[in-house]
Write a structure and sequence with these properties.
With 167 residues, this protein is an alpha/beta fold. It has one domain (9-144): Rossmann fold (3-Layer(aba) Sandwich). 32% of the residues lie in helices and 15% in strands. It has helices spanning 9-18, 34-44, 89-103, 117-125, 136-143; strands at 21-25, 48-52, 60-61, 64-65, 79-82, 107-110, 129-131. A hairpin with a 2-residue loop joins strand 3 (60-61) and strand 4 (64-65). The longest helix is centred in the middle third of the chain and has 15 residues, at 89-103.
């Protein structure tokens, strides 16, 4: 059965609700980089995240051993999240497709600013769901009401001066 390119909010939430283990390709050892704090955030929300970075292989990021490639991860994982430039996506998706059955991979997620339509089409033809140009941290927060904690889309934060009633 072919996979789908997910753009609808309900489909993205369903994906986030069904995956448990995420391989994070291109994660940085520098905690200030988006890839690192997105990985940490996802861990704090109950996901197991497995870092993939060939230059940091053997080190640890957020308590998880770093692997050089998807094939080096000894365990199964549900999703591949990509923090690489768009032009670097194709070989990562090809590896995910090759390993999909063995590792139980169900989806590929390309982080904000990352898009590769040809690789996405190949992944969906192989049965994987694909999300492109979206942040997993932001999408999780959006679909699990965490953005409201900061007042986003709630009407609580406003540039208008509040009217104060005097008794």
């Amino acid at each position: 059965m072919p996979g789908r390119i997910l753009t609808e909010p309900a489909d993205i939430r369903a994906l986030l609700d069904r995956v448990r283990v995420i391989a994070v390709v291109g994660v940085s050892t520098d905690w200030k980089r988006p890839s690192s704090y997105v990985m940490k955030y996802l861990q704090s929300r109950g996901y197991r995240t497995v870092p993939v970075n060939p230059r940091a292989a053997g080190q640890e990021i957020w308590g998880e051993r770093v692997h050089a490639s998807l094939a080096d991860i000894p365990d199964r994982f549900d999703m591949v999240e990509i923090f690489r430039k768009s032009e670097d996506v194709r070989p990562i998706v090809d590896e995910a497709i090759r390993l999909a059955q063995e590792k139980s991979i169900r989806a590929v997620w390309m982080q904000t600013g990352v898009r590769h339509d040809e690789a996405a089409q190949k992944a969906t033809a192989a049965g994987l769901d694909v999300v492109m140009d979206r942040c997993a941290k932001i999408e999780y927060g959006r679909h699990h009401s965490e953005l409201a904690w900061g007042g986003f889309n709630t009407g609580v934060i406003s540039a208008k001066r509040q009217r104060v009633r005097h008794a």
